[in-house]
Amino acid sequence: MVSRVDAVLEINGLRKTYRSAFKGPHRAVDGLDMRVEQGQIHGFLGPNGSGKTTTLRTLLGLVRPNSGRMTLLGREVPSALPEVAGHIGAIVEAPRFFGNFSGRRTLRILARAGGVRRARVEEVLELVGLRDRAGDRVKTYSLGMKQRLAVASALLKAPRLLILDEPANGLDPAGIREMRDLMRGLVEHGTTVVLSSHILGEVQQICDSVTIISRGRRVAHGAVDSVLRAQDKGEFLIRVADHERAAQTLRHAGFQITTERDHLMARGVADPAIITETLAAHKMWISELTPQRPDLESVFLQLTGTVPEPGVTRQVGESAAAFGHGAK
């Protein structure tokens, strides 16, 4: 019997090293700590090669760690995996199904193998928006539809913990919104979701908390708002009639000022009212004073070393093994 716990997933000091005769040892996960609270959508973020998939596969007993401690639903894994497997659904890496089977038949086979009542198949098809195409062969499905089918397979046992690796892969904007609504609905009914995704704007919108890793190590964690605030550098965009004169005045007053083509950037500003007062004292009037708050994408890129410090255009581009009721 798996009891209710506050932390549905906890990792302490996880390490995993792969060894190759040609490339030598590669430490994929290097002392990782991670904690996911009950009833959250938790974003698990990192660039390609950062150790995300290795971490998830290790949690699910697919990879043997070198050291560290892991618990799922309050039970230590991998030793307790047989006890918790029926309460966990997961999609890790690319979905794989038999192309000649229909989506409905695929789920019925998985349900029968997992001891799930047949009616649950129709419920999960409805949940993921596949009911109208359930009778079609999987080989006719788009990538996005296969993602939906993978999510459906992970939901068959109504899991308490759902781990999703890139669930929005191949979905159009409407499909992404439907996936977002689905995850929120699951959380409202008691499921905790761990979400790995490269659509960082979506992660910022939907997740309650995040863990960001780079080179196998944790570089940030906590509530999304807290992580963003920790990286707030007090930047403000300033527009005024005479940029050069304003820049000189503000620098003389001790502000860090960068001159751009049609505006100024001030950094390290604790109280923006002082900018207004300083310029007004010299008969210069501000037409715009806008805080430049960090978003999750910019924070991610800075913390993982994907790009240099701010000042460049920021864009990010980074599945079916369903644990406990897998599809291969």
UniProtKB/TrEMBL annotation:
Entry-linked SMART domains: AAA
Alphabetized Gene3D superfamilies for the sequence: P-loop containing nucleotide triphosphate hydrolases
SUPFAM superfamilies listed in its UniProt record: P-loop containing nucleoside triphosphate hydrolases (SSF52540)
GO MF annotations, alphabetized: ATP binding; ATP hydrolysis activity
Pfam families xrefs: ABC_tran (PF00005)
Span of domain ABC transporter: 9-240
InterPro entries xref list: AAA+_ATPase, ABC_transporter-like_ATP-bd, ABC_transporter-like_CS, P-loop_NTPase
Keywords assigned by UniProt, alphabetized: ATP-binding, Nucleotide-binding, Transport
Similarity section: Belongs to the ABC transporter superfamily.
Protein name: ABC transporter ATP-binding protein
Lineage of the species this protein comes from: Bacteria, Bacillati, Actinomycetota, Actinomycetes, Micromonosporales
